[in-house]
């Protein structure tokens, strides 16, 4: 913000968000990094297509690292002067929130930290709510209330072609426990709202079947015929998003939809072929 900026606060987030073109997701980002051995690449300097090629050809399996406190400080600086609302990926999946808290102390800025308790498109929904509040001149309390409402109403599911990447990245946890030894099955995974960690909700034998199982989870959650806002995040096969949206259209009026590719840091953990669905009912809270 500038001294003449009418917004009461600025919004920043981290690289756990997959930004959606038609939402207010254009905010300063504290980036995650992709690491191949001793080589580290900030996510802002690579593409998912580059990562997919590396996954095919590089004998070293990549890891990801959270933003450093200094990267959060830099994001605060890009937000300009004044109060800041920092929205982090789920603390159940990353230490980014801890880094943001350290950055707040280092910067001496007035920073409110909100744990989204989710990731990817569901995180982008909360960032959008915060930005709308800021653009309308609403208070920070109103922004937090809207984000909590969006968090409560929004469901996030993803499916992957293989569990290998989650397993190698150490993110498999409760998903592996639910899958048992049947690692050839395709899971449908959500983020548990109680603790912000991954949880398995279904398992099927084919990737096509997992897309159907995922959209059925959406319908089970909201009820057939409920109008939905739907965001789709795809990996190496954009046509997977088309298939999911068509299935949802058969059971729901779609009042808004958008899509984007899964960012390269998240692709480290889900692999090249993955599909994510973020869904919420009806209008945004401030439109009712």
TrEMBL record:
Keywords: Lipid-binding. It holds the Pfam family DegV. InterPro entries: DegV, DegV_C, DegV_domain_contain. SUPFAM superfamilies: DAK1/DegV-like. The keyword Lipid biosynthesis does not apply. GO terms for molecular function: lipid binding. The keyword ATP-binding does not apply. PROSITE patterns: DEGV. NCBIfam families: DegV. This is DegV domain-containing protein. It comes from Deinococcus wulumuqiensis.
């Amino acid at each position: 913000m500038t001294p003449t900026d009418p917004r009461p606060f600025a919004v920043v987030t981290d690289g756990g968000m997959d930004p959606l073109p038609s939402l207010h997701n254009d905010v300063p980002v504290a980036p995650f990094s992709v690491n191949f051995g001793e080589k580290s690449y900030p996510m802002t300097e690579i593409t998912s297509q580059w990562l997919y090629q590396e996954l095919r050809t590089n004998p070293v399996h990549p890891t990801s690292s959270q933003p450093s406190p200094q990267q959060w400080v830099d994001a605060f600086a890009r937000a300009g002067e004044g109060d800041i609302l920092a929205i982090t990926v789920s603390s159940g999946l990353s230490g980014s929130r801890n880094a943001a808290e350290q950055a707040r102390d280092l910067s001496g800025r007035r920073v409110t930290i909100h744990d989204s308790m989710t990731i990817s498109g569901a995180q982008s929904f909360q960032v959008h709510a915060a930005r709308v509040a800021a653009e309308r001149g609403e208070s920070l309390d109103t922004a937090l209330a809207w984000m909590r409402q969006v968090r409560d109403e929004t469901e996030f599911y993803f499916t992957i072609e293989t569990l290998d990447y989650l397993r190698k990245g150490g993110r498999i946890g409760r998903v592996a426990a639910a899958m048992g030894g049947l690692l050839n099955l395709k899971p449908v995974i959500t983020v548990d709202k109680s603790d912000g960690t991954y949880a398995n909700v279904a398992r099927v034998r084919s990737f096509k079947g997992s897309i159907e199982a995922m959209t059925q989870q959406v319908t089970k959650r909201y009820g057939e015929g409920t109008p939905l806002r739907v965001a789709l995040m795809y990996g190496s096969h954009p046509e997977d998003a088309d298939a999911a949206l068509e299935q949802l259209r058969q059971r729901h009026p779609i009042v808004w939809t958008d899509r984007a590719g899964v960012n390269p840091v998240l692709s480290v953990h889900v692999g090249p072929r993955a599909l994510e669905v973020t869904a919420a009912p009806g209008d945004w809270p401030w439109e009712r």
